[in-house]
Amino acid sequence: MAEQFPGGVLDILEAAGGRPVFEHAGRTVTGAGLLGTVRRAANGLRQHGAGPGDGVALLLGAGPEAFAAVVAAHVTGARVVGVRPGLTERQRDHLLRDVRITVTDRPGAISTAPPGGTGGRRAGRVLALDDLLSAPDDGTRPRVTARPEDVARLIHTSGSTGVPKACAQTYAAMTAGWAHRPDAWPPAVRELAGRLDRFLVSGTLASQVMMEYGLLALAAGGTLVTADPPVFPDALVRHRATACVMPVARLVKLVASVRESPADLGGLRALMVSGSPLEPGRFREAAEVLGPVVFHGYGQTETGMISMATPEDPPGSLGVPPVELEVRDASGRPVPPGTDGELFVRTPAQSCGYWREPQLTAEVFTDGWVRTRDLGRLDGSGRLWLTGRTRDVVIVNANVHYTGPVERLLAGHPSVAEAYVVAVPDDSTGEAVHAFVVPTEGHTPELAELRALAAAELGEACAPTRLTLLDEVPLTPAGKPDKRRLAAGG
């Protein structure tokens, strides 16, 4: 039987040997050096009692020691909880439930006292990362004690609807993941991997997305270079980065910045963009300014990557999904190509459910499939096109209208760069469409013109009754358009 995750990661570091795998704070770390740091971190965790099934929380940055701590926690077979910056105290308390050990490189950021000082502990034992790494290096390959059926990590959703939900992913699922296994790379990922010579990392390596692209870069023979906080485009130039991952909003700002003040980005080969739809106009603008470098990924916390578009794919598409995907109608029956429906997927590394939320798990995880609650279609070539969210609707005169088609139609208008639609109360129809748009440079969209367009193409009920112009769309902590804030008045 193959060794459980993170055995494959240890193999990558062993194979790297004296090759640089990290550049951080003016120093270079080799594969052998990083493997030694993993050994110390794993020994330190075990000295403090961490083992299979124990909850270990990580509030860490993006350096090599943080990377080693993440891998080491998995070596022990722990249930790893990544704690990202920017959470409210309530959200952080929620994440730290059932945690035995919390490791942090930010002294004072975590308290063991419960809210209100009522006794008990909420974060378990808190260990400074430096203290953890003071454990001895025994020089042997770390012993992986992970068990296939145990939960390897809890990956939390953005929390845009309140307290983040925790998606539970087993060690068996992580072992089946594609990032650290070149033999499992889909075509789009293989093309991407060849561009990750110098992958810029930032934020936290406890992030699902940042860690998996980091593993992909290492497996492809690349080097991780850190920039925190990353200021674009300067960070790309200064670190000679060939690749970076960013949300759509950051891509838009990068394009605007480079258009205004050209920068030498001749070495840039890949920008992995995800988190929200990338409008075709934005894709074409990025290609014009930055070159053919944009890879647009689609996935969910529950599933991992579902599909990825390369720079050669048609703008607006998400490429050919390398996973099992069905487009189903309202009764759950698959629909033919070209027909819109709800997307159901099965991926090798998908979550097994929501941690301690059986009712919600039953709603989303059905018969081995994950209900994405996204709407889309497959075209005749097998490419995926998203068309909206099943729960993103406006109910006009008791009829349900999805906001996705309205947003795409408005975003295609020459005066509109981005468009977002929310429902607002209406005395006559119950709800009506409120459109928030970011204008294209030099244009001012008019409500009457956008109303006429929507009414002609989608019907009067989908025509916006209100229009708000934005300089930029507000974002959630996860970097996605925050439509809740729009609906609440900004």
From TrEMBL:
<dbReference type="InterPro" id="IPR042099">
    <property type="entry name" value="ANL_N_sf"/>
</dbReference>
<dbReference type="GO" id="GO:0016874">
    <property type="term" value="F:ligase activity"/>
</dbReference>
<dbReference type="InterPro" id="IPR050237">
    <property type="entry name" value="ATP-dep_AMP-bd_enzyme"/>
</dbReference>
<dbReference type="InterPro" id="IPR045851">
    <property type="entry name" value="AMP-bd_C_sf"/>
</dbReference>
<dbReference type="Pfam" id="PF00501">
    <property type="entry name" value="AMP-binding"/>
</dbReference>
<feature type="domain" description="AMP-dependent synthetase/ligase">
    <location>
        <begin position="17"/>
        <end position="355"/>
    </location>
</feature>
<comment type="pathway">
    <text>Lipid metabolism; fatty acid beta-oxidation.</text>
</comment>
<protein>
    <recommendedName>
        <fullName>Long-chain-fatty-acid--CoA ligase</fullName>
        <ecNumber>6.2.1.3</ecNumber>
    </recommendedName>
</protein>
<dbReference type="InterPro" id="IPR000873">
    <property type="entry name" value="AMP-dep_synth/lig_dom"/>
</dbReference>
<feature type="domain" description="AMP-binding enzyme C-terminal">
    <location>
        <begin position="406"/>
        <end position="480"/>
    </location>
</feature>
<keyword id="KW-0436">Ligase</keyword>
<dbReference type="InterPro" id="IPR025110">
    <property type="entry name" value="AMP-bd_C"/>
</dbReference>
<dbReference type="InterPro" id="IPR020845">
    <property type="entry name" value="AMP-binding_CS"/>
</dbReference>
<keyword id="KW-0472">Membrane</keyword>
<dbReference type="Pfam" id="PF13193">
    <property type="entry name" value="AMP-binding_C"/>
</dbReference>
